[in-house]
Design goal:
The complex is a heterodimer of chains A (225) and B (225). The termini of chain A are far apart. Chain A has ten helices and eleven strands. Chain A has 225 residues and is of the alpha+beta class. In chain A, strand 10 and strand 11 form a beta hairpin. Chain B is mostly helical and 225 residues long. Chain B is elongated, with a radius of gyration of 22 Å. The N and C termini of chain B lie far apart (45 Å). Chains A and B meet through helix 1 and strand 10 of A and strand 4 of B.
């Protein structure tokens, strides 16, 4: 008998109810940042998401949050089973019998840092009481999408580039990539590969001026080495 | 049993007793009763008097949350939950254009005390300066202490209170609260990292806090009050 393919995703309404429940379960105040699909849902770009990506300022905050979701029945899973391979700086992954999955990070999100400038640029703060969630802005969501090799992230990147092209600040993206490079990440290279992929496979349209600036930056970095 | 919401919808806008009598086809005594009911449930507010000393009432279709008379059975009526910037703009002479959206997604409203602490946590110059006016609207010092404590901002609150009262009128702080706040001066804190004013050295030394505001900045707050 064939297994039915279940769409394991969560929508905004259910996610908000979940966060309210977590807020009522938390023992101490926790503040975190929503990135990826969760951030896209709050900005009404996406309707559903597979995983809830949250970034914490400190390990202590993550532990407090972890204990709260464990109380609600979430269990730890291996990141390799989710990402399909071993990755650098993997998140702590928590799953339950429901459709949602939590990916918890502390400042570092696989190949990128959630820098101070990204934190200052947050566009929303959702106050659930003890739990407060800040939503990163669109340009920063796009930057972080290149951290994984997941097809879904490429599709999300295309959606952002197609529909919300006017809201993307390309200058800001370049500045942030500089910041990431200064923090030791191969930001320009990773982002350039990501853009090439979505341009070829998804047919996204990227401004030529930006592509040229990106190429120049990568050339300068290679020359320095 | 009068349906308050339908009444408010029917009378929405600016009304006098005479106009209410005409719309509802009732006597003036009944019109006064309706106005009294609408005021009690938060739908109506007297805004001014005419040249003949008649009262003008502003009637809204949704109640204002700060009416303490709205009972719980009317909780399905949509309540406007004021966010951080709404509270600051209502109470401060220095107005702010929100740099991010502050959404309250919980049962309790955002209080003045919590708004003050949240404003300090933004680490934005103008937001913190504008929020200093909230020291004149504090309703519950214990609540302020609680939020300052859980956010590790006890000495910051003390320093900003001492600074603010030099320039504008503020509510008198409980003497015991001051003693508790002074217990937190061992850890040095910077209100905005990297910015320290050359003025107010005595306050900065007493509370072990770097204050970002100069005398001219505080005078702006004073002159606008």
């Amino acid at each position: 008998m064939k297994k039915e393919n279940k769409i394991e995703k969560i929508d905004l309404v259910n996610q908000e109810e979940l966060f309210k429940l977590i807020s009522n379960t938390l023992k101490q105040q926790v503040e975190c940042f929503a990135i990826g699909g969760t951030a896209m849902m709050y900005q009404k770009i996406k309707d559903v998401t597979k995983d809830i990506d949250l970034v914490f300022n400190t390990k202590e905050d993550k532990e407090i949050f972890k204990n709260a979701i464990k109380e609600l029945g979430y269990k730890e899973a291996r990141p390799e089973t989710v990402y399909g391979r071993k990755i650098i700086n993997p998140p702590e992954v928590f799953v339950s019998s429901g459709p949602e999955r939590f990916d918890l990070f502390v400042n570092e999100v696989i190949d990128f840092y959630l820098s101070e400038s990204m934190k200052q640029r947050c566009v929303q703060l959702i106050d659930y009481g003890i739990l407060k969630i800040k939503i990163v802005n669109l340009s920063d969501i796009l930057i972080m999408k290149c951290a994984t090799l997941r097809e879904g992230d490429r599709v999300d990147g295309k959606i952002i580039l197609d529909i919300y092209r006017d809201k993307i600040d390309w200058g800001q993206i370049l500045n942030e990539l500089e910041v990431q490079e200064s923090l030791g990440k191969k930001a320009f290279q990773n982002f350039s590969s990501f853009l090439e992929e979505i341009e070829e496979k998804q047919g996204a349209d990227i401004p030529q001026e930006f592509k040229n600036k990106l190429k120049n930056k990568i050339r300068k970095i290679k020359d320095k080495k | 049993m009068i349906d308050i919401q339908k009444l408010a919808l029917r009378l929405e806008g600016l009304q006098t007793i005479n106009t209410i009598c005409k719309i509802l086809n009732v006597k003036t005594s009944s019109a006064y009763e309706y106005i009294s009911l609408l005021k009690k449930w938060g739908y109506s507010k007297e805004i001014r008097r005419t040249s003949t000393n008649k009262r003008i009432y502003a009637i809204r279709r949704t109640p204002i949350i700060r009416s303490k008379f709205i009972p719980e059975e009317y909780s399905e009526i949509p309540r406007i939950k004021q966010g951080l910037f709404e509270i600051i703009n209502e109470n401060s002479p220095i107005k702010l254009v929100p740099s991010f959206e502050y959404k309250v997604q919980r049962e309790e409203r955002l209080t003045i005390e919590e708004a003050l602490v949240e404003a300090i946590k933004t680490k934005k110059f103008r937001v913190i300066l504008s929020s200093l006016a909230l020291f004149n609207k504090i309703e519950n010092w214990k609540r302020l202490y609680y939020f300052a404590k859980i956010n590790n901002l006890k000495n910051v609150i003390g320093a900003l209170y001492d600074l603010t009262r030099l320039f504008i009128r503020v509510k008198r702080m409980d003497s015991r609260l001051r003693i508790f706040l002074l217990k937190d001066i061992k850890i040095h804190r910077s209100i905005i990292p990297g910015i320290k004013s050359p003025d107010f050295e005595d306050i900065q030394k007493l509370w072990n806090v770097d204050i970002p505001f100069r005398k001219d900045d505080m005078l702006k707050l004073k002159w606008n009050t």
